[in-house]
Structures are given as structure tokens and as C-alpha cells.
Amino acid sequence: MKKKVVLFLPFGLIWLLLAACGATATPTPLPTETAVAQIPPTETATDEPPTAVPATPTTEIVPTEPTPTDEPLFPTPIVTPTPTLTPTVEIPDYTITILEPAPATTLLAGREVTFRGEVQPPTTEPLTLTLTVGSFTAVSTQITPTAEDGSWELTTTLAKAASGPGSLTVTLGDLAQAEQPVSLAFDNSTDEPYISLSRPVEGETAVAGHAFLMQGDSNNLINDSFTIGVLVDDCTNFIAAQKISLSSGSWYGFVILPQNVDPGPACAAAYTGEYGEGDWREALIPIQLLAADDPQATSLQLGNPVDLEFAVGDTTNLLGVAINVPERAVDIMLVLDSASGESEVVTSGTAFADPFGLWSIDLELSDDATSGPALLIISSGADDSYQEIRLPVHIAP
């Protein structure tokens, strides 16, 4: 049988044990730091050099400046764009047709005229219509075709200042163009100023340094005078001109071209009034300029009017131009125009051209010369260089 043991502890001891287990320990205060003045030690003077003190190693990080560089810190990535597919719009092949006026039609300056045509395939884009004579613009306007069939039409009044061979042009931007020749002429049945050129003809040549013959008709000239000349630079600048006094009637004359003109396109002109101002009128004919040493620069011309007549016992002056003909000689012969083919010489002579190509001769008919139909023959050169003019004339009794 077990014995029960009972332990009796004194009350004071129990209280100490409880205090030791449950109470919080009080922290021990740090000793108070008292500032003490430090007196530096007195250094004893000595002649010995100071002892070097080795550097104390340190772990402090010393900052450094970055080195400049052209290389980007973060390179831009190269991105290849994906091509975008753009739908291609096909431009139609347009065709413009001028139906009216017909090619080579002569229109009266200052009168109303109708232009008509079509564009295919139909479009409502505006067309530009232009009619020019030399550098002069008689008409310049825009027309809108009909959307249904592409037809177009315009009625307008032509400017009345210029006459001569011209060009009618109708364009659709840079996509299509139609062009055809037309001519403008002045109406000589009115009281307005009238001037015309029957000579030269379109495309005729003029030679640098030589005379150039011109001929025409006139009526109601402004200030009873007109001017003839030759223009270059798209028929805008005169290189030769001569003023002639006349109120009305047929006329002929010439100008001397300078030696240093450039070969190429030019215009022969006759105008009355102040050029480009007021009621002025101008007749223009496109011509070609040749250098004096051009192999094609040979010419033999008669300057007298076409309706030339001779009379028995009278003297008739003949004049003309001969360029680069052998020995500058021009042979003139007047013969009867016989039905039998046999030619009876009525009179003859030889003229010589001056340095400008001008020649002149007084052709005298005797008192016993035969009258009637005749033939005037003007010639120069021989063989390959032979040139000849044959002109039917009449010998009056």
C-alpha cells in the first residue's frame, strides 16, 4: 500500500517563485556619455621627415561618369511593314472627235460659229477648246460633255483681230486630244478695217540676209497705213518690218531679213492700226526661215502682181528676188503665146541681183510689137541649177 506524501512550502517562498515567473524585467540604463575636451598632444619639433601613414582600406563606392557612345541603350527594333494592296483603277482610253466645223474650213473672224463633237467613252470631265492663229487666240473655253452619250457643243463668237491658217484643238486634260486645221479670214464686205496676205503661201521659205516678198489686199486701213514684217519666237517678235502708206487696194512689198536669224518656224504678217490694241487687224501666214548657206536656200521670184500687163510701145518695170543663183543673173523673155507652138520673141533682157537678192529690169516693147496673148519667161542657172517662172500675160495694142 502506497503512502501519500504531502509537501508543505512556506508562504514567503511561494510568493518569490510567483514574482520570478510573472514579472517583466526592468532594462538596465546605458551609462551617460559626458563630453570631454580633447587636448591635442604637443608635437615635439624634429628634423626627421614625417612618417608616411598607410591609406586605410575602404569599401566606399566611388561614382564614375558614363562614357558617351553612339550605340543606343535600347536599340529600336526593325519592323518590316506589311505592304498594303491598293486596288488599281484602270483609266479609260478616251477618244475625242470634232464633227463641226469640218477640217480646213474657213471661218469669218468676228462671226458666230458652232463647234460640235463627242468624247468616248462618255465622261462629264470638262473639255478645253482652243482656236489659234499664230500666237493669237481666237477662242479659248471649256465644255462639259453630256453623261449619256459624250456629245458636246458650243456656239460662240470668234475674236476679229487676226486672220490666217489656224488650228482647232480640243483636249481632255492629258488623257486625249483632237486637232484639225482651220482658217480665219476677214470679211471684206464691211466698213471695218481689212487686210489680207496672198503672198507668201503657208510653208514658204525666207532666207537670212535676203529680201522677202509679200503681197495682199486692203480696205479701210487705219490711219491710211499698214505694216508688213516677219516674226519669230512663236510669232511674237518682229525681226524685220516696213510701214507702207495706203488707204485701200492691192499692195506688194518686201522686207530685208537680218543675217543672224536662227533657222526655224516664223510668221509673215501684215497689220493695220496699233499692234495688239483697239480695232487693229492682222493677217498671218506661217513660213520657214533658212540660213543663207543652207543648200535649200535658192529661190527665183517675180515680185510684180499676178495681173501683169504689157503694152505696145511702152516700158514695163519688172522686179523680183533671186537667191544663190549662178552669177546672180536672171534672164527675162517675153514671147507670143502661139497656138502652133512656135514662140516669137517680143523682147528680152538680163537682170542681176544685188547682195540682198533683189533684181529689177525695165522691159521695153517696140512700137511695131505684136499684141495679144503672151508668155513671160523668167529663168536662171542651167542643168541642175536651172529655175524658171512662166506667167501668162497680155500685150495690149
Number of domains: 3
Please count the beta strands (DSSP E, at least 2 residues each): 24
Number of helices: 1
Taking the sheet with the most strands, its summary is: 10 strands, mixed
Can you tell me the CATH superfamily of the largest domain? Answer: Immunoglobulins
Q: In which range does the helix fraction lie?
A: under 10%
Please describe the topology of this protein.
Blueprint: H1 11-22, E1 95-100, E2 106-108, E3 112-120, E4 127-133, E5 136-143, E6 151-157, E7 162-172, E8 176-185, E9 194-199, E10 205-207, E11 211-219, E12 225-232, E13 237-245, E14 251-256, E15 264-272, E16 281-290, E17 299-302, E18 309-311, E19 315-323, E20 329-336, E21 345-352, E22 358-364, E23 372-380, E24 387-396
Parallel strand pairs: 2-8, 7-16, 10-16, 18-24
Antiparallel strand pairs: 1-3, 3-6, 4-5, 4-7, 7-8, 9-11, 11-14, 12-13, 12-15, 15-16, 17-19, 19-22, 20-21, 20-23, 23-24
In short:
With 397 residues, this protein is mainly beta. 3% of the residues lie in helices and 45% in strands.
Any overview of this molecule?
By secondary structure, this protein is mostly beta strands. It has three domains: 91 residues, Immunoglobulins (Immunoglobulin-like); 97 residues, Immunoglobulin-like, CATH 2.60.40.10; 98 residues, Immunoglobulins (Immunoglobulin-like, Sandwich). Helix content is 3%, strand content 45%. The protein is built from one helix and 24 strands. The strands form five sheets. Strands 2, 4, 5, 7, 8, 10, 12, 13, 15 and 16 form a ten-stranded mixed beta sheet that branches. Strands 18-24-23-20-21 form a five-stranded mixed beta sheet, with no helix packed on it. A hairpin with an 8-residue loop joins strand 15 and strand 16. The N terminus is likely disordered.
